[in-house]
Inverse folding.
């Protein structure tokens, strides 16, 4: 997993509440176990019509938001089923940070495991960021995980809370496998000792 560094990116406004994981990545795309390739189907039923043509007024189809790296969303983002394909699709599209007043717990935790920073802020601060995002591609928002700040294009900055362990994992690019590999030497030493003590196992 890539390390999460400070960055400045375009924020796309999506002021819908209760965006569930089936809206993020519909069930027909859950057959794969690969983390890549799902970005094209992110918000599939909102992005495309029945013939597969782009719906022009959907936010991520608009020219100024095609390369958005931040999503500013309504309350209770990521509710519904626990499918990990949802953060896979978001990350594969290129979104690195999602801002909302609240997230579903499983989705929230899955974001950290997949290199996405979910930021929880009060409604009034989300409203400011939403209005800033509506300005289009000229309004670049800055995200600094180390400082735990998110700053609008006009320089208004908000602090956010994040669990220290989850922050450490994002900053160092550690998913569950990476965390395990940090203990590789200790695991190898344990296995060698166990093999000597119980060679028949």
């Amino acid at each position: 997993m890539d390390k999460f560094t400070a960055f400045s990116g375009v924020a796309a406004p999506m002021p819908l509440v209760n965006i569930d994981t089936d809206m993020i990545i519909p069930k027909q795309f859950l057959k794969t176990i690969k983390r890549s390739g799902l970005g094209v189907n992110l918000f599939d039923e909102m992005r495309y019509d029945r013939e597969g043509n782009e719906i022009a007024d959907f936010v991520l189809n608009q020219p100024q938001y095609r390369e958005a790296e931040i999503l500013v969303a309504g309350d209770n983002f990521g509710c519904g089923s626990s499918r990990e394909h949802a953060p896979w699709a978001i990350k594969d599209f290129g979104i690195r940070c999602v801002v909302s007043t609240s997230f579903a717990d499983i989705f929230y935790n899955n974001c950290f495991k997949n290199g996405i920073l979910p930021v929880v802020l009060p409604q009034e601060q989300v409203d400011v960021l939403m209005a800033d995002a509506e300005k289009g591609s000229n309004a670049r928002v800055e995200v600094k995980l180390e400082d735990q700040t998110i700053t609008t294009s006009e320089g208004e900055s908000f602090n956010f809370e994040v669990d220290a362990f989850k922050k450490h994992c994002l900053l160092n690019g550690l998913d569950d496998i990476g965390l395990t590999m940090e203990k590789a030497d200790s695991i190898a030493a344990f296995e060698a000792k166990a093999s000597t003590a119980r060679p028949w196992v």
Observations:
- The radius of gyration is 19 Å.
- Strands lie at 7-14, 70-73, 97-100, 117-120, 140-144, 149-151, 157-159.
- The longest strand covers residues 7-14.
